[in-house]
Design brief:
alpha+beta; Alpha-Beta Plaits; 4-stranded antiparallel sheet; 2 helices; 4 strands; 26% helix; elongated
Amino acid sequence: MDTRVAVIGIIVEDESSVDQLNAILHEYGPHIVGRLGIPYRARDINIISIAIDAPQDTISALAGKVGGLPGVSAKTAYSNVVTRA
C-alpha cells in the first residue's frame, strides 16, 4: 500500500474537545512522525501541527475525525512524496 507524507494543521478553540483530540491522535500514533503544539494564550486557542506518513485514506480519516470535534478545525497539506510498500 502506498503512503504519503502530509501535515495536518489543527486549531482548537474549545478546550473541552482536547481529551477526545488526544485520544484520536493516540489511535493514529503509529503513523505520526511528529507533533508540535503551541498554546496561544492571547487568543485562548491551541495550534497543533501533525506530521504524518500513512496511506491517503488514513490521513483523510484522521483529519475528518479531528475536524468533526466541536470547536476544532483541521486542514491537510499533502507532499508529493509517495512511498510504495
